[in-house]
Amino acid sequence: MRHGSRLAAVAGIAAALALVLAGCSAPTGPTPLPSGSDASAVPSATVPAVARMPRHIVVVVLENHSFSQVVAAPYLASLERRSLVLTNASAVAHPSEPNYLALWSGSTQGLIDDSCPHRYSGDSLGAQLLRARMSVAGYFESMPAAGFAGCSAGAYVRKHNPLADFAATADAAHSLPLTAFPSGDLAALPRVALVVPNLNDDMHDGSVAAGDAWLRSHIDPYAQWARTHDSLLVVTWDENDDSPGNRILTLVSGQHVRPGRSNQPATHLSVLHTVEGLLGLPALGPAAPALTGIWR
């Protein structure tokens, strides 16, 4: 081949390669977050780009019912049609409190009962978020005042508030009554929020129907909003009704979640590690895989 022909061939290959690279570099997924304190963490390389760094994540915890007891409740059934339903999810312990601690800190902290009060010095999701300059709050129905440290007040119980057990989030800036949950501008929510109804509305003392109605009234506005605002909703239960396997309903909904059903094994640690992975935070606690195959 002549020298000129070889140069022409090389140039043609280079041009074709440039076109391929240009096509691969086209951005995918949601628009990148604007710069600011909540955009500082580096997303985990193990999470698909389309699902990285949600603008908001809300985790709602209800109480003491198995998968079969709640899956057909009217509002939950409608939410499930718009969600990824984990059909093989289970809690990590009995009774309630160790499960909240596992969901928030990656550990039951050695607790085997619902005793109160406790204060733990180890790490937690709240502390991780604050170190990464991301916002966090818990919203607890019937809590009498922000930062309330008592073990109970009416239908509020501290055993369902893991933020109160860690110094980073026990204060009045992070441990809040449900009345502080934004009712209009949902963009005012923190990056991560834990929402817990009181004993009457979380299906603990009240009925499945009452808890289902509470979800429709208090959570559905966010569930609808999250579908178009790069945000995520997780609804789960602390534990089941003591039936074998501790199987619970857990569902994930949001703009970049693929609706359907998944039989992948999942626990509270899986939920925690998924949230951490989405926000570029290291996983707390023992190894447990983040949720996979659920993103659009």
Short description:
This protein has about 300 residues and is α/β, with parallel strands linked by helices. About 25% of the residues lie in helices and about 15% in strands.
In words, what does this structure look like?
- There is one protein chain.
- This protein has an eight-stranded mixed β-sheet.
- Helix 4 (96-105) packs parallel to helix 8 (268-278).
- The chain is of the alpha/beta class.
- The chain has helices at residues 3-24, 67-70, 74-80, 96-105, 125-131, 208-218, 220-226, 268-278; strands spanning 56-62, 84-90, 136-140, 152-153, 156-157, 175-177, 192-196, 231-237, 247-254, 260-262.
- The chain has a single domain, classed as Alkaline Phosphatase, subunit A, CATH 3.40.720.
Radius of gyration, CA atoms, in whole angstroms? 22 Å
Oligomer: single chain
Mean pLDDT: 87
> How many DSSP H or I helices?
8
The overall number of domains is: 1
Please write out the topology:
Elements: H1 3-24, E1 56-62, H2 67-70, H3 74-80, E2 84-90, H4 96-105, H5 125-131, E3 136-140, E4 152-153, E5 156-157, E6 175-177, E7 192-196, H6 208-218, H7 220-226, E8 231-237, E9 247-254, E10 260-262, H8 268-278
Parallel strand pairs: 1-7, 1-8, 2-10, 3-6, 3-7
Antiparallel strand pairs: 2-9, 4-5, 8-9
What key attributes describe this structure?
single chain; 296 residues; alpha/beta; Alkaline Phosphatase, subunit A; 8-stranded mixed beta sheet; two-stranded antiparallel ribbon; 27% helix; 17% strand; disordered N terminus
